[in-house]
Amino acid sequence: MRIALFSTCIVDGMYPRVARATVEILERLGHEVVYPPGQTCCSQMHVNSGYFDDAYPVVKNHVESFEAWDWDVAVAPSGSCVASLGHQQPMIARHQGDEDLAVRAEQIAARTFELSQLLIDVLGITNAAEQLGSYFPEHVTYHSSCHGMRLLHLGSRQSDLVRTVEGIKYTEIEGLDQCCGFGGTFSFKNADVSGAMVEDKATNVEKTGASVCTGGDCSCLMNIGGALSRRGSSVKTVHFAEILASTKENPLKIDGNVELAFA
């Protein structure tokens, strides 16, 4: 397949190793990955703050950037951003009276998958060790992000893949379905509430005894990782794409800062 990578702005700007891990996984399976260069943001942060007029050109840019390339499906290492494509972009276009753009946005969204959706539902990957060669000998727990859970209905797809990685010891976190408190601009506008929520999440992460907390959204992992760092915890946060990309030959090494050996 020819797969278009929607890297998302936070991955592109702050966690490019997650995009590289996503590409590594898909190329390992024999697929061609292309990167529409005009892409920027999905408009989620604009919409969530009520700036619908400002969101419109962002939505238009996303649709036009992906329409300009030939691809079978698109993928993003973010449940939050994929949810925004289907849940928010058509709404914004219709709010501006642009029905044509709304339909085109829906068409792009229908072919765009979160990474675990693509791997399991489209590509039939159910065992990361056997089918991807994934290897990560660490004690891991998992945070389920809100948009992936509640809007995309990912269920246990991400953690199911993580559990099948060779060498992993997996312990489920208490309060798996509880928000980490990030919520984009929510963490700025409601800092005290957000801070209390992420402290609860960090406490539950530490209770598992895991050395690594993984998940499918870098924004949530950044928030949790920040809370863990502020309390002097040794637990690291790692996107599940990085774990799936890790192999015995090119392992993901965690020593202070997370670093991809193959990056």
UniProtKB/TrEMBL annotation:
Bilayer-crossing regions: none
Gene Ontology cellular-component annotations: cytosol
Residue intervals of the Cysteine-rich domain: 3-85, 140-224
Pfam family, one: CCG
Tree of life domain: Bacteria
InterPro entries associated with the record: Cys_rich_dom (IPR004017)
GO function terms (MF aspect): oxidoreductase activity
The name this protein goes by in its record: (Fe-S)-binding protein
Organism field: Rothia dentocariosa
Native organism taxonomy: Bacteria, Bacillati, Actinomycetota, Actinomycetes, Micrococcales
